[in-house]
Amino acid sequence: MTSRNIIWLTGVLFFMLSGPVASQDWVDIKTPKELRALYSNKTFRSTYLGVPVVEHYRADGKGILISAELRTPCTWEVKGNDQVCVSDEKGTDCYKFQRNKKNREEYVRLRQGRPFMTILKVEDGVPEF
Q1: Which pTM value belongs to this model?
Q2: Distance CA 16, CA 73 (A)
Q3: Which pLDDT tens digit goes with each residue over 34-80?
Q4: CB half-sphere exposure, 8, CA atoms < 13 A
Q5: Residue-wise over 80-103: b if at least 16 C-beta within 10 A, else e?
Q6: Which end of the chain, N or C, is more open, meaning fewer C-beta atoms within 10 Å of its C-beta?
C-alpha cells in the first residue's frame, strides 16, 4: 500500500470516527450569503505541516496565499449554495465549511474531490495587496 493510500485511509477513518463528536461542536455553512461573508475582507490563519499559512481574501473575489517565502495570487467565488472555489496558478479547489458553535472565529474547511481538512482562524480585515 502506498503512503498516499495510507494517508487517505487514515483521513477517512478519522472523519468516520470523529463525525458524531464533531457534529456537536460544528455547524455546516450552507448559504451563499454566509459563504460570501466568510470570504469578504477576511484573513484566514492555519498551519500546513507545521508551516504557518496566511490567506487574505477581498470582497471583490481576489486573494493571496502566503506560506513561508511563497506569495500566490488567487481568486475566489461561491459555487452553488454550499461551496467556495479558490483558483490559483496550480488549479482550482472547492471547499465546504463548518463553524465552531463556541468560537465564532474558528472554522473547518473541507476540500472536495481530494479530501483534506484544515482548521482555520478567521479574522476581519486584509492588508493592501
Answers
A1: 0.79
A2: 34
A3: 999 999 999 999 999 999 999 999 999 999 999 988 999 999 999 99
A4: 9
A5: eebbbebbeeeeebbbbbbbeeee
A6: N
